[in-house]
Amino acid sequence: MDIYALAKPLLFQFDAEAAHDITLNSLKFAEHLGALALYPTPPVCQTRQVMGIHFPNPVGLAAGLDKNGAVIDGMAALGFGFIEVGTVTPRPQRGNPKPRLFRVIEAQGVVNRFGFNNLGVDKLIENVAAAKYKGVLGINIGKNFDTPMENAVDDYLICMQKVYAHASYITVNISSPNTKNLRALQEKEALSALLSMLKSAQTKLADQHGRYVPITLKIAPDLEHEQVNEIADLLVEHKIDGVIATNTTLSRQMVQGMKNANEAGGLSGAPVRQKSTLVIQQLSQRLQGALPIIGVGGILCGADAVEKMAAGADLVQVYSGLIYKGPKLVHDICRTLG
User: Fold this and answer.
1) Is 176 a catalytic site residue?
2) Of these residues, 176, 268, 276, 284, which one is catalytic?
3) What is the domain-level CATH number for residue 13?
4) Fewer C-beta neighbours within 10 Å, C or N terminus of the chain?
């Protein structure tokens, strides 16, 4: 029985963020009841070795759904091959005023302008330490909204140092459209300086901890072709371990005239699928296998995941697709990928 299919009409009666909170709280409650074992496990799916990490299956949870790492065990029970929590910032912050999450139902899309609302990196670490999950865990890091852009690297370094011991890999988020000027860090000179400092910190932390934790960079879908090439070249130059493509889009071309389409924020779900896939193709052509690509954006069925893989992705992640398809999406993708 697909429990989510039964619950979805009720959840969609609520404000989108309220439904999000209800879903997370339900998973947390299921953890406390010991009911997680009742979730069906996905079919056997081909394992992947990426960034020196063994992934039991290539379907991951994208950052943003579990910002504070509060329901890691609940998410793990859904069958993900890896889980990415965050985005987390050095200090707690409330994010943007509510309402800030909107469904674009007609297009199976979601608009959010959360603004990195989270309880801070120390609380995330506390939650990670309390989780029973021992699988692949990515931790996505960002900057506080009130940290001046000239000091942005300091926030990333603080987070990186704190999460290093707890992460399988660390994602550097410079592509959210909901933190003012954040995407300027994707520009060539700023990005080169940021990557240089992160790589230096990674080398020192690897020595301190006796283990190497890969770094990935999450980029936007709204980049020009030349910008994608510049970023790809910098990733290789600075020996970054992977790239996640893509975050949400500012474009509304795919949803014009639809309810909630004109809300400010980043658009995800089905409307971003083609833009995300195009960036993956461009990265793949430029990188020529120099580093792996994690594909995310508009995956609502197994065929969408196959499209991302065909474009050059080594792994995939889902988020908005879960809102429309529920946990069975993980099962469907695994079955399709085989």
Assistant:
1) yes
2) 176
3) 3.20.20.70
4) N
